[in-house]
Backbone:
């Protein structure tokens, strides 16, 4: 009887000892049985439960969906929220070359948000110089735009004006000859990375002035976001 009682106590305690571990749920579906040591701003430090005397491991919080601790409590980590925190503190800026669109033919441009956000109101300015067959066109596009969306996919609405100077020997239905100011609009898709990287814009950009209106004018741009 003296031996049976300790054995019973050991058997009763065994299931609870097996559950005395933290479980880290990765976003890819893997579950890590661990002992969580520290949760920092960017990383989680832990040791494997089956090797508590072994090395310490680190994992980015963005790769973790939740942690269930040995006492039954839990923490959840939302990837979207993490990205939003990075985005909200960093003003989006872009440099790009544009074919057609508000630059009219071919321009180099700079675009920025007016606050520390990746979306919302902003503006762009650029310049273009193109010559062919003795005809030279200089353009200076300036516009305001508003980005709707989150993450890296946006819809851009813009309104602005482009100064265009065409040499006196040329004549165009929309550009005219000499110098003119052309009104521009933008209804475009914009691919803009959360932090930095390749950017793309494409869509319709109607243009107009006293000489006429082109509703289906369009263009694309390729650039870099930082």
Residues:
């Amino acid at each position: 009887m003296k031996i049976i009682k300790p054995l019973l106590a050991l058997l009763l305690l065994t299931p609870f000892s097996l559950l005395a571990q933290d479980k880290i749920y990765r976003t890819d579906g893997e579950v890590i049985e661990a002992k969580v040591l520290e949760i920092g701003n960017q990383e989680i430090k832990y040791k494997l439960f089956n090797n508590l005397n072994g090395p310490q491991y680190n994992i980015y919080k963005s790769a973790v969906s939740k942690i269930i601790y040995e006492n039954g409590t839990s923490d959840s980590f939302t990837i979207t929220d993490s990205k939003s925190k990075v985005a909200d503190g960093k003003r989006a800026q872009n440099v790009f070359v544009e074919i057609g669109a508000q630059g009219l033919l071919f321009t180099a441009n700079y675009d920025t948000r007016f606050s520390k956000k990746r979306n919302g109101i902003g503006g762009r300015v650029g310049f273009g110089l193109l010559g062919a067959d003795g005809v030279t066109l200089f353009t200076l596009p300036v516009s305001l735009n508003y980005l709707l969306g989150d993450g890296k996919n946006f819809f851009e609405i813009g309104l602005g004006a482009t100064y265009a100077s065409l040499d006196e020997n040329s004549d165009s239905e929309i550009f005219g000859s000499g110098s003119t100011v052309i009104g521009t609009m933008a209804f475009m898709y914009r691919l803009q990375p959360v932090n930095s990287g390749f950017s793309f814009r494409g869509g319709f950009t109607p243009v107009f002035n006293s000489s006429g209106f082109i509703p289906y004018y369009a263009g694309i741009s390729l650039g870099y976001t930082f």
DSSP finds two helices and 16 strands in the chain.
